[in-house]
Amino acid sequence: MIAALLFAEPRADEARTMIAHRDLHAPTLIDYEIVNVATRKAKVGFERQVEAALGHYAGLAIDVHAIDLAETLAIARRYAISAYDAAYLWLAGFLKTPLATFDARLGKAAQRYLGSLGKG
């Protein structure tokens, strides 16, 4: 979601609308994910856009959080998603907030996981 906004991906306007006027939260790994996207963009000739995107990212008010490793592993295994995706999903559950994502598989896992909370 944030990468789409920063790097002017096709769904950037939708991302902007989805996060407008909302508190933003992410696991600490977001920094690495943004740099990973920036590295890929720079390799294909978008150095100027990368510089601007990283500047924009630095100015975003995103609260970053450490994750619970054991619970994140359990989520990754239960929903057959990556540990990276599970970190975002765990955080959404911990904060009791919806997860904003364009990833259909992660979105389905979020519906199942977040819908299951408090039903135990």
Task: Describe the protein.
The protein has 120 residues and is mainly α. Helix content is 64%, strand content 7%. It contains seven helices and two strands; from the N terminus they run H-H-E-H-H-E-H-H-H. It has helices at 2-6, 12-19, 30-43, 47-59, 69-79, 83-95, 104-116, and strands at residues 24-27, 62-65. Strands 1-2 form a two-stranded parallel ribbon. Helix 3 (30-43) packs antiparallel against helix 4 and helix 6 (83-95) packs parallel to helix 7 (104-116). It is globular and about 50 Å long. The model has no long low-confidence stretch (mean pLDDT 95).
Give the SSE layout.
Layout: H1 2-6, H2 12-19, E1 24-27, H3 30-43, H4 47-59, E2 62-65, H5 69-79, H6 83-95, H7 104-116
Parallel strand pairs: 1-2
Helix pairs in contact: 3-4, 5-6, 6-7
Descriptive terms for the model:
2 strands, mainly alpha, two-stranded parallel sheet, globular, 120 residues
Apparent shape: globular
- Our count of helices gives 7
Number of strands: 2
Rg over CA atoms: 15 Å
Largest sheet: 2 strands, parallel
Order of helices and strands: HHEHHEHHH
Strand content: 5-15%
Q: From the helix content, strand content and strand pairing, which structural class follows? A: mainly alpha
- Enumerate the strands of the largest sheet in spatial order, edge to edge or round the barrel: 1-2
